[in-house]
């Protein structure tokens, strides 16, 4: 097989605060909310809200009825008695990362001007669409994707949450966790939009020390939208190890599949689990070059290890062959029981800093 091709062009990096990334992993999923997740209407502080329950019932999401028109789809696409749900899938994860990147860019400018950091900023909608990966030509022609981007923005602004969430590794019960930001929509479409972050998210951006690096090209990659959202979540999980400078943390494959929001079918079948894992490894290694080696361990005391440096093998590797070559020597018969680690991150990822490019725009680059 040919070697993995790696892009040598400098890549822009968004420094995602660790608490925000941990929280988002609990709130957002690969597919988002389905009609059957609708639980009914509730009254809170004299406001009527649609209540939705996420997979497993750990989190409930509430969206105000008086803002429903901001995210409504055509009536033919809805059940009569069920409102359009707020967007809490992969597109919402990318929305939060895109806005965070734009805030980061604003703070680079403020830092160079000797001004304090801020947790609010203005933006042109077309600039936001560019961050999400759309070209000027696509934006000029318009289309349903622009409406979907606005639904992302409104979902992030008006959805509140309740339930069990993890922040910095600690489990909390969220009671009416506020919407992530206040969104100011201009009456004149030529004017700028504005985002003002609420607490605790505001403090995450202003005071957070540890961050998870996220490549802008990953946010913009359309191959990870919709049904392939697990590729984006996997990439971000791998990058969370890069932020510590240690890819040697071992994670059980079944736990990894849960963290990247793999479907029930994938998590419930060894071959499906391997197929998704192999796709994720090959995609992340090929596209971004942030995985140099994968190690599998037995599920006991990690006394046995199988290291794989030829990551091309994950492109079309038959599960039976993989089991014979990797799992059997480890004394395992099911990929989900194995421990996995990702080794040798590029050193540049750990020291990414803001700098100005030739256009005068501030950037974090690799």
- Mean pLDDT level: 86
Summarize the amount of helix as a percent range.
25-40%
Strand content: 15-25%
User: Low-confidence runs (pLDDT<50, min 5 residues)?
Assistant: 1-9, 350-366
Major sheet size, sense and barrel closure = 5 strands, antiparallel
Spatial strand arrangement across the major sheet: 2-3-4-6-7
What form results from the Cα inertia axes?
A: globular
Oligomeric state as shown: single chain
Counted by DSSP, the helix tally is 12
Alpha-carbon distance between the two ends: 27 Å
Task: Estimate nothing, just give the exact number of structural domains.
Answer: 2
Radius of gyration: 21 Å
Number of strands: 16
Give a verbal description of the structure:
Strands 2-3-4-6-7 form a five-stranded antiparallel sheet. A four-stranded antiparallel sheet has the order 11-14-12-13. The protein has a three-stranded antiparallel sheet with strand order 5-9-8. The chain is built from twelve helices and 16 strands. 35% of the residues lie in helices and 22% in strands. The chain folds into two domains: 15-219 and 348-364, no CATH class; 246-344, no CATH class. A hairpin with a 7-residue loop joins strand 12 and strand 13. It has 366 residues and is α+β, with helices and mostly antiparallel strands.
Provide keyphrases for this structure.
35% helix, 22% strand, five-stranded antiparallel sheet, 366 residues, globular, disordered N terminus, four-stranded antiparallel sheet, 2 domains, alpha+beta
């Amino acid at each position: 097989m040919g070697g993995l091709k790696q892009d040598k062009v400098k890549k822009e990096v968004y420094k995602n605060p660790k608490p925000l990334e941990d929280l988002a992993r609990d709130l957002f999923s690969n597919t988002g909310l389905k009609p059957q997740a609708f639980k009914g209407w509730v009254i809170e502080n004299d406001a009527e809200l649609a209540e939705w329950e996420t997979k497993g019932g750990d989190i409930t999401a509430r969206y105000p009825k008086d803002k429903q028109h901001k995210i409504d789809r055509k009536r033919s696409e809805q059940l009569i008695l069920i409102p359009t749900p707020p967007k809490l899938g992969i597109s919402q994860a990318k929305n939060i990362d895109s806005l965070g990147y734009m805030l980061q860019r604003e703070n680079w400018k403020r830092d160079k001007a000797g001004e304090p950091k801020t947790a609010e900023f203005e933006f042109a909608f077309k600039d936001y669409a560019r961050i999400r990966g759309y070209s000027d030509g696509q934006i000029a022609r318009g289309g349903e994707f622009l409406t979907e981007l606005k639904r992302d923005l409104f979902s992030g602004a008006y959805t509140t949450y309740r339930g069990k969430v993890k922040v910095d590794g600690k489990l909390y019960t969220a009671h009416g966790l506020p919407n992530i930001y206040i969104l100011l929509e201009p009456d004149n479409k030529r004017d700028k939009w504005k985002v003002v972050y609420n607490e605790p998210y505001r403090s995450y951006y202003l005071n957070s020390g540890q961050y998870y690096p996220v490549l802008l090209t990953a946010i913009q990659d359309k191959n990870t939208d919709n049904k392939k959202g697990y590729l984006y979540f996997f990439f971000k999980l791998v990058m969370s190890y890069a932020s510590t400078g240690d890819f040697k943390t071992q994670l059980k494959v079944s736990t990894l599949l849960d963290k990247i929001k793999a479907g029930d079918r994938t998590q419930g079948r060894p071959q499906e689990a391997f197929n998704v894992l192999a796709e994720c490894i090959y995609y992340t290694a090929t596209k971004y070059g942030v995985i140099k080696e994968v190690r599998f361990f037995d599920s006991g005391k990690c006394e046995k290890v199988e290291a794989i440096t030829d990551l091309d093998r994950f492109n079309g590797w038959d599960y039976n062959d993989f089991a014979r070559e990797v799992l059997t020597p480890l004394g395992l018969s099911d990929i989900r029981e194995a421990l996995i680690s990702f080794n040798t991150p590029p050193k540049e990822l750990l020291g990414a800093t803001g700098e100005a490019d030739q256009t005068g725009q501030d950037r974090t680059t690799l």
